[in-house]
Amino acid sequence: MNKTICAISTPLGRGAISIVRLSGKDSLKIMRDVFYSNFLEYDKIKPRYLYYGRLNLENKSKENCLAVYFKHPFSYTGEDMVEFQIHGGTFLTQSVLKLLISKGARIAENGEFTKRAFENGKISLDMAESIIDEINAESEGELKASLELADGKLTNKIINMQGSLTECLAQIEATLDYPEEDFEEETRFSIFQSIQLLQQELQILLNDAKHAKMIKNGINIALVGAPNVGKSSTLNALIGENRAIVTDVEGTTRDILSESIFYKGLKLNFIDTAGIRESDDKVEKLGIEKSKEYIERADVILFLLDGSKKMDDYDKSIKALLKEKSNVITIVNKSDLPRKLEKQSNEILISALNDENISEIKNQIFKMVEGEKIDYSHMLITSTRQTEVLIECDKICQTILNSYNESMDIISMLIKQLWNCLGKISGTCENEDIIDLIFSKFCLGK
Predict the structure, then answer these.
(1) Is it the case that residue 193 has pLDDT exceeding 80?
(2) How far is residue 158's CA from residue 381's CA, in Å, rounded to a whole number?
(3) Residue-range domains of the chain with CATH
(4) Mind listing the pLDDT tens digit for each residue in 348-376?
(5) pLDDT interval class at 431 (50, 70, 90)
(6) DSSP per position, 102-159
(7) Residue 429 and residue 165: Cα distance in Å, rounded?
């Protein structure tokens, strides 16, 4: 049986409380050695009941605290667990941890509590990854998506898919065992129907994963335009801070400046690019090249024009550069000045100086990326690893479908490959490296 582990489960530093936890067969024994309470008889200890008492530290000092015992299998890890709620403070917390180690526990590895929960059947591998996403969530949308996966919905779907593949394998075995019955063609047709349906389910998950990528990483929005049209002023207005340098001198922005805000549960990453124009300045040239790269990579492009001037050659060259793109929102700045620019198609008229119509830009970005259509009740897979596995599964499906006329042995081998690939998500595959990699991303106390 695994040795009893211990760790600090709250951030180090000053605070009202810190939590130190134990997990393993000796958890209650160690608790008995270090924790004393007038309200507790260890022979009659109640699981999930909070006891007030004291810890006797090694320097003979005493720490008044709370302790709770979780009896297996009704605990986070599926093992006996104990948690001590002590006063916050780095030195005190480390002293308690040192005390537990002296009584036979060892320091937990990163994510070892959650790994034991997985090994003991308390959670599936995808549920473990959703816990990481819950902890790291930076937006309402990201948190909603991770919570939807936390109850094992994805694992249930994967297990159903694997069940369908198991039925396919059973059909193949029956065909091979009884060749005289001559129902190979009927079996082949049935199997390929099942693979087609499975691939459709995979593609639905992958399509939803596109939304999930936006939820997790945010929407990348490039502000592009000729020098001095007000890109930096617009960025400052969008984020509500003076982060970009604003001057009357053309070409002030020579590098890329990126800032993020949250809007309707989504993270918006605004990228202020260098003004696109011909330049002999080496530094500015590099900035302009980077701007062109960001145009290609952006989810949304804000094309800025100066409403107080007619469109010049710089503006026209940028407009031509963006002509074939469908993710462009045209922003006409400087509505506080007399208008000279001709009317633009689907323009948003703003004044970055006076914050006029700035909220409309955010609203149009949200609509463009279909933010209003994101259904958080769907399984929005925010894990890059899981998405890559699903892409791999989709490719194997296609390989199977392209192998209709191959022997049943080859088709069986491909189906087994697909079964194991799906198991990389649920944890039903025998790949310890994948499992170790996932749990290494957790903090020590989780």
Answers:
(1) yes
(2) 13
(3) 5-123 (3.30.1360.120), 128-214+379-439 (1.20.120.430), 217-373 (3.40.50.300)
(4) 999 988 889 999 999 999 888 765 455 55
(5) low
(6) HTT-EEPPTTHHHHHHHHTTSS-HHHHHHHHHHHH--SHHHHHHHHHHTTSHHHHHHH
(7) 14
Angle, CA of 319, 214 and 369, to the nearest 5°: 45
pLDDT at position 367 is: 84
How does strand 106-107 pair with strand 5-8? parallel
Per the CB < 8 A criterion, the answer to whether 275 and 150 are in contact is no
Q: pTM of the predicted model, to two decimals? A: 0.52
The pLDDT value given to residue 283: 43
Which position has the token pair 């330049």?
A: 279
Which pLDDT score, from 0 to 100, does residue 31 have? 96
With the C-alpha atoms ordered 398, 402, 404, 405, is the resulting torsion angle positive or negative? negative
CA 9 – CA 424 distance, rounded (Å): 28
3-state secondary structure of 222: strand
Bridge partner residues of 437 (DSSP): none
Q: What contacts 24+ positions apart, CB below 8 Å, involve 393-399?
A: 393/202, 393/418, 393/421, 393/422, 394/199, 394/202, 394/203, 394/206, 396/421, 397/195, 397/198, 397/199, 397/202, 398/199
